[in-house]
Predict the 3D structure of the following.
Amino acid sequence: MENRYVIRVEDAVKTYKTGKTEVHALRSVSLIVEPGELIAIMGTSGSGKSTLMNILGCLDTPTSGRYELDGTRVDGLSKNQLADLRNQKLGFVFQGFNLLARTSALENVELPLLYDRAGRWRDTKKLAAEALDRVGLGGRLDHQPSELSGGQQQRVAIARALVTQPTLLLADEPTGNLDSRTTVEVMALFQALNESGITVVLVTHEAEVAQYAKRIVEVRDGRIVRDEPVRGRRVAADDLREMDEPTLEAAA
Amino acid sequence: MKKANLVRVAVQSIRKNKMRTLLTMLGIVIGVGAVIVMVAVGNGAQSRIQEQIQNLGTNMIIVTPGSSAQGGVSQGAGTFNRLSVEDAETLKREGTLISAVSPVVMTRVQAIGGEGNWRSSVNGVSVDFQAIRDWQVSSGAFFTESDVRSMRKVAVLGSTVAANLFPGGDPVGQQVQLRNVPFTVVGVLAAKGQTAGGSDQDDVILVPYTTAQTRLAGRSFIGQILAGTASAADIAGAQQEIRAIMRESHRLGDGENDDFTVRNQDELADAASGTTQVMSMLLAAIASISLVVGGIGIMNIMLVSVTERTREIGIRMAIGARGSDVLTQFLVESVVMSVLGGVTGLAAGFGGAALLGSLTGWSTAVPPEAVLVAVGFSAAVGVFFGYYPARKAAALNPIQALRYE
């Protein structure tokens, strides 16, 4: 396979065994994501979207089927190989921010660089500072998560995901804990990053958030039931401008 | 993950929980400190005993009355006192490896003289006694061979006796009465201090053994015969020789047991230090229990920490930490804690030993290898008690760990 696709899933099945009953979390999913896409995976809870996201995020492997990430076959890899792959090719953004408490923004962002086994990174502090600068938090390197607002914490998390220059940015309900304005701000950041060439996969259950993506994939009962480009796509930067209180920008 | 980063990550998370880290370390601090203090006390006692035994004299052999058996019934040591002045004279005459021999005729008397009276032990000895015990005189001189031969009534006072009978003055040339017999003081012994057993060596009056036998009759007996060799190498041979001569002069047949005991100074030292060694081992063993308890404290805290930090572990794994990275991090955390505790405990132990020494007057000494053992042992405690929690952390499933509330 050529490296044309960031994600190539073919007929992935995931079955959990709990006692004697089998739970079919994914029945048969095929998905292709090309470089530069901004794709929203939607679905209600129990639809299988979390399972799909875990597989895409190399946190889990499909029971059967095939998954290639950036040309690397993922299914069948060992735990350690999965960990290395996550470190090298993926950036995670979670709903609950998942920053290390009592640890400065800089140290949080630096962390994935420290876990690199290939020795790719030299000046890890400088790289982390640059990533924070990129998400607009260049002035808050030494702040701890408890000293930052939700939107700022999520930006730190995004910086942490970006710092290793991943092939894919994987965001699991990134706006779930944010108010509407901060949601738009964070989406503006994702759109800007996407414009600069980063492939982004958003997992969300909010239709408004999905409207900022380029493409929507809907999962129901372990199958993809809809896969189409977004019609009437919204631009977060424009929405922000439409919001009448530009002074809030600085406060956030 | 690089090793330097690993230590950094571990130290970072230790720093984040200062109070908890301190409390956890306290267990190890107390454990190591207690072991060091106990070892110091035991070791100090031992070296003090060695010193005191050395103080008895050099290359000394001691013959004491031994046990005898009658019809297979052992009568216990000293039951039949068969040591005699003749034995000492025979040894002196026939011994080839023995350079000096002195009988010790022991009795207790009320000494009267100078400004008062003092009850003390009188030892009738030969001139060789001074050489065997390596005992200098601080004033006057030791009595001479001719004093012994002529049974002169001369005495050499131990410093305690001199101080009690003649406070402030020089007793040399003065008279003391021992059992109503006037003796002329010819010398005063230099102070030797206490024996290992705690009795005052200086509370003694030395007189020629011949004089003691004739003038101080009564309950006088030969408590022991002291012998000395020219060099330490001769001691074992001299002991053999003494035994052979004594058996012959006591006319003991082949099947009969010795009716005397021959020991050298090292054997005395071994016997004495053997006891303290057992004591100090016992103390150290009890103290080590607190070290183990400290280790269990570390394990406890690390287990709590793994549960508490489940989400953190999930995050680390999601961003690329391998199970082994997490394992090493937790292991390094527990080892760093226990080694820091060990080093602090070492300092506390040194301080505690010094304090105890100055409060009680016991001599304490920390052997240098104890430092290495203490630090090494606390690191081992860290690894041993940190491994299980660390493995638990490493085995977490990242998906479940991330969802953990």
